[in-house]
Amino acid sequence: MRITVCENYDEMSKKAAQLVLAQVTLKPNSVLGFATGSTPLGLYENLSEMCSAGQIDFSNTVSFNLDEYYPIKKDDPNSYNAYMQENLFSKINIKRENAHLLNGETDDPEGECENYERMIGRVGGIDMQILGIGSNGHIGFNEPDSVMYPYTHITHLTESTIKANSRFFSSVDEVPKKALTVGILTILNSKRIILMANGAGKKQVISELLGDGMKLNLPAALLKLHPDVTLICDKEAYPK
Ligand code: F6R
After folding, report:
1. pLDDT value at position 142?
2. Ligand 1, residues 69, 101, 133: which to mutate, most atoms within 8 A of Cβ?
3. For ligand 1, is residue 6 a contact (CB within 6 Å)?
4. Nearest alpha-carbon partner for 88 in 15, 6, 28, 80
5. Is the Cβ atom of 140 under 6 angstroms away from ligand 1?
6. Protein residue closest via CA to atom 9 of ligand 1
7. Residue 212: its pLDDT value, please?
8. Ligand 1 neighbourhood includes 37 CB (under 6 angstroms)
9. Strand ranges of the sheet holding 99-100, from the earlier edge strand across to the other edge
């Protein structure tokens, strides 16, 4: 795992944006994997500005988001569909039909997950996957559990994730208890992975990730099996 430690969130977001720029410049029809949450907001702001300035062209790119709450309406302000629309897709020139998200409105979550996995396979997999990390070590919504699911699936959120994400909702009771998420192998099949972490709240989990061995209760530890992962974090999240 390559590690880049940045002075602050701003620098971390710019560094990540430079990696996306290099990816899309070298391969204009890149398949990008996007994450939601607080961590990539600065990255998305940078990409939006670069796109407005004509420095990056998303018109031939395809994207797949990691996850979506279940059930949730697409136009619910807390859905990841709404988040992506607001923070990225409305500000860059990606074709809307090329920007894929799991459908939290579906009556057939299993069918939705199978179809999503098939669509990722049909375009040849993800070229560059952007990841955040939960303070419990989750990536996507692959939570610490005794069972790991390789492919896109429906999952239960842990109490700690529900509590952490309640900051976006008016009360903890409103946070959906389930989610649709790509699986661990879907992530590990990406050609390149950019893992981002910022703030003192992520220091403990990054310390566990970078420690010896691979902790079984830390889904992110599986990233150690991947040959091309770059961790970009700020000083506060870096344990050394
Ligand atoms: C979001 C996702 C999650 C987040 C993680 C960190 O699509 O897959 O794994 O990356 O929960 O969230 P933040 O960035 O809000 O700390």
Report:
1. 98
2. 133
3. no
4. 80
5. yes
6. 140
7. 95
8. yes
9. 2-6, 229-234, 192-197, 128-131, 31-34, 62-65, 99-100
Q: Is 196 in the pocket of ligand 1 (CB under 6 A)?
A: no
- Residue of 111, 141, 147, 129 whose CA lies nearest to 188: 129
List residues bridging with 34 in a β-sheet.
Answer: 65
Q: Residue type for 229, please? A: V
Q: Can you give the pLDDT of all 240 residues of the chain as single tens digits?
A: 999 999 999 999 999 999 999 999 999 999 999 999 999 999 999 999 999 999 999 999 999 999 999 999 999 999 999 999 999 999 999 999 999 999 999 999 999 999 999 999 999 999 999 999 999 999 999 999 999 999 999 999 999 999 999 999 999 999 999 999 999 999 999 999 999 999 999 999 999 999 999 999 999 999 999 999 999 999 999 997
Q: Whose CA is nearest to atom 15 of ligand 1?
A: 37
DSSP string for residues in 171-192 = SGGGS-SEEEE--HHHHHTSSE
* Number of other CB atoms surrounding residue 34 within 10 Å: 28
Q: For residue 166, report the distance from its CA to the centre of ligand 1, in Å.
A: 13
Ligand 1 midpoint to CA 52 (Å): 26
Asked if residue 134 has its Cβ within 6 Å of ligand 1, the reply is yes
Active site members: 67, 136, 138, 143
Q: Which ligand 1 atom is at minimum distance from the Cα of 35?
A: 7
Domains of the chain: 13-196 (3.40.50.1360)
Tokens of 122: 């049909």
